[in-house]
Amino acid sequence: MWNMASGKFSQISVAEQGRLAFLSGQIAAAPGSQDTPKDIVGQAKLATASLTVALEHLEASAQDIVMMRVYVVNATTEAFQQVLTALRELLGDAMPSTTTIGVQAL
Asked: What's the predicted TM-score (pTM) here?
């Protein structure tokens, strides 16, 4: 198993008994706007801001995230690192199990 003490991600997450919410479609677009940041950092920050709003609506926080699946278009090692940096800002010390996938398009 990956050394989870590295603080980058966790391979195992446990959801405590209670209500579950499944979120999807947290993309780099503001509601009602066609504008999308041109750079990956801006896109990642907009997507994490959207996720934060959704969590707040549910009266939840990053600590409640059990699993994340992140898609990065035209992924490079640098792009993955930039996206993961934005995610760390959102997650703080939360460590949901996370899969990051490079794709050609969304």
From this structure: 0.79
